[in-house]
Specification:
nucleotide-binding, five-stranded parallel sheet, disordered N terminus, Rossmann fold, P-loop_NTPase, 231 residues, cytoplasm, three-stranded antiparallel sheet, ATP-binding, binds adenosine-5'-diphosphate, binds cytidine-5'-diphosphate, kinase
C-alpha cells in the first residue's frame, strides 16, 4: 500500500453510458469535480477524429478509406472536469467538433472497427493513468472499454426530453428536427456491429426525463459513495 497510503479513498472507475441528451456530460463533469476524480468525454474523441477526416477530405461514406488513415491523427484529451480539453495534432478542436457537420457524420466514422480499436486503446490508457480514479462517459464504456469499472450507470430519457434539452442548447433549433436527428444517430449507434450503444448487464439504469440535473448528480454521487463504502 506504499503508493496508496496518502489516499483518502481508493481509485474508483465510473462508466456512464447512454444516448445523446440524457445528461452524460453534465452529470459526469459534476460528479468528477465533486469527488476529485478525472473526467473523460469519449464522444469528444470520436468527434475529433471525425473532424480530422472531414478536414482532410476523407470520404466518410467509405469505411475502407477511413480505416486506412485511422491511425494518423494524434488525439489528446484533457481530464480536468472543470476545463475539458481536446486537441488534434496540437490544434484545439473543442469548438469545431460541435458543428452540425461533425455531429451528422460522427456515427459513420465511429462505426469503423479500426477507428474504435484505436480510440478504445487510448481511452484505456487514460483510465489506467488516472491515479485518483475517473468518470468516463460514452456509449460502450461499461460494455467494452472498461468492463471491470467499479460502477456502471446507463442514463436514459424520453426522446421529447432529450430533444428539448438539445434544442435549448442550440439556441432555438427546431425541436422536431432535433428529435429526428437524435433518433437517427441513436439508431446508427445502436445498430453498428462493433461495440454498439448498449446497457451493460450490471449497469444501474437511471431515467432522467423527470429529474433535474442536480437530482441526477446526487443520485450518481450517492451510488459512488455506496460503492466505495462497500469496498
Ligand atoms: N436532468 C436534466 N434536466 C434538465 N436538463 C438537463 C438534465 N441533464 C442534462 N440537461 C441539459 O441537457 C443538455 C444535454 O446534456 P448533456 O450532459 O450534454 O447530455 P449528453 O452528454 O448525454 O448528450 C445540457 O444543456 C444539459 O444542461
Ligand atoms: N464511447 C463512445 C462515445 C461516442 N461515440 C460516438 O460519438 C458520437 C458523439 O458522441 P457525444 O457523446 O459527443 O454525443 P452527444 O451525446 O453529446 O450528442 C456518438 O453519436 C457516437 O457515434 C461512440 O461511438 N462511442
Amino acid at each position: 500500500m506504499e503508493n496508496g497510503a496518502a489516499r483518502t479513498a481508493p481509485a474508483v472507475i465510473v462508466a456512464i453510458d447512454g444516448p445523446s441528451g440524457t445528461g452524460k456530460s453534465s452529470t459526469s463533469k459534476a460528479v468528477a469535480a465533486q469527488l476529485g476524480l478525472s473526467y473523460l468525454d469519449t464522444g469528444a474523441q470520436y468527434r475529433a477524429i471525425t473532424w480530422w477526416m472531414v478536414s482532410n477530405g476523407i470520404d466518410i461514406t467509405d469505411p475502407t478509406a477511413i480505416a486506412a488513415v485511422a491511425g494518423k491523427p494524434e488525439i489528446v484529451s484533457g481530464t480536468d472536469p472543470s476545463a475539458p480539453a481536446i486537441s488534434v495534432d496540437g490544434t484545439d478542436v473543442a469548438g469545431p467538433i460541435r458543428t452540425q457537420e461533425v455531429t451528422s457524420k460522427v456515427s459513420a466514422v465511429s462505426a469503423v472497427p479500426e477507428v474504435r480499436a484505436r480510440i478504445t486503446e487510448l481511452q484505456r490508457s487514460i483510465a489506467a493513468g488516472a491515479e485518483d480514479g475517473i468518470v468516463v462517459e460514452g456509449r460502450d464504456i461499461g460494455t467494452t472499454v472498461l468492463p471491470d469499472a467499479d460502477l456502471k450507470i446507463f442514463l436514459t430519457a424520453s426522446p421529447e426530453a432529450r430533444a428539448a434539452r438539445r434544442s435549448g442548447e442550440l439556441k432555438g433549433a427546431d425541436v422536431r428536427a432535433t428529435r429526428e436527428a437524435l433518433l437517427k444517430r441513436d439508431a446508427a449507434d445502436s445498430s453498428r456491429k462493433t461495440s454498439p450503444l448498449a446497457k451493460a448487464d450490471d449497469a444501474v439504469e437511471v431515467d432522467t426525463s423527470d429529474l433535474t440535473l442536480q437530482q441526477v448528480i446526487e443520485c450518481v454521487v450517492t451510488l459512488v459513495e455506496e460503492k466505495r463504502a462497500a469496498e
